[in-house]
Amino acid sequence: MNELQHVPTPAPQGGVSPRSGIASVERPAFGLPGVPMFLLLLVGAGAAVVLLGRFPVPALVLGAALLFALAGFFIVQPNQAMNLTLFGRYVGTERRNGLYWTNPLTVRKSVSLRIRNFNSERLKVNDAGGSPIEIAAVIVWRVVDTARATFDVEDYAEFVAIQAETALRHLASQYPYDAYEDDRMSLRAHADEVAEALGGELAARLRHAGVEVLEARLSHLAYSPEIAGAMLQRQQAGAVIAARAQIVQGAVGMVEMALRQLSEQDIVTLDEERKAQMVSNLLVVLTSERGTQPVVNAGSLY
Fold it and tell me: What is d(CA 48, CA 90) in angstroms, rounded to the nearest whole number?
């Protein structure tokens, strides 16, 4: 006889597996409007008072039932929901605001649906190039599935904090702090793309807790203090090289323009040797960091 084997559900990429591979699903709870029910209980209380003199036993039973029914009232505040369980079984969620009545035997737990901010601590991690950096992020989130947030994780707020730190560490290891190739993304130069990648990874990790990520963005990014000075010198060297390259490019263009205009306007005719000397002199003048001292030639050109 073949035996059935239990195959555990694999954890989805970027997150943890729900318990037993089964995720809770939010559904509406049974709830009656509270004001009509309260008026009905008042009528019943009046009837119990009237019956008390002539039929004390039924009046006491009715009074006990009315007192028991009072435990079924609950209030749902704006941007909150109420999870209802009956004898350990989830029976639904009430999202409508106001006073409602339900089975008095149910246990009710309030869950906030308000938007929340989570500002992570500064983490010291290594980027894709192995350089130690400090990084932090601001996560804007809210609960969208109260059943998952309550029953699928122990503490959804703590779950968000831990998963945000894990996602931030993983993100920092995927990109360099600063890319020196134009076709490579970096944490510093591509803030929008990095924020989008962080938000996507957080959404994958937090969907098991019924949490929606509204925005995720880096709030702090810097080299670690032990290498900050060396990296600053590297950035300054890169900036100097880029500036000198632009200066040389502009100087070559100006020399080319000068030679072309001299030739077109037939001002002077220069052989190749004199052209080379003129190009050298112009490049020295245009690319020099200090002011050059002109030398006046009072004799012939040659």
Answer: 34
pLDDT band of residue 259 (cuts 50, 70, 90) is: confident
Dihedral over alpha carbons 74, 80, 85, 90 (to 10 degrees) = 150
User: How far is 5 from 25, CA to CA, in rounded Å?
Assistant: 26
Domain boundary among 200, 223, 246: 223
* DSSP secondary structure string for all residues of 129-145: TS-EEEEEEEEEEEES-
Residue 207 lies in a domain: yes
Tally of structural domains, the chain: 3
* 9: amino acid identity, one letter: T
Q: Is 67 helix (H, G, I), strand (E, B) or coil?
A: helix
Domain of 97?
19-111
| CATH number of 208's domain | 3.30.479.30
Asked if 130 and 220 count as a contact pair (C-beta separation under 8 A), the reply is no
The pLDDT tens digits of the residues spanning 2-43 come to 333 333 444 444 444 444 456 789 999 999 999 999 999 999
- What SS3 class is residue 99? strand
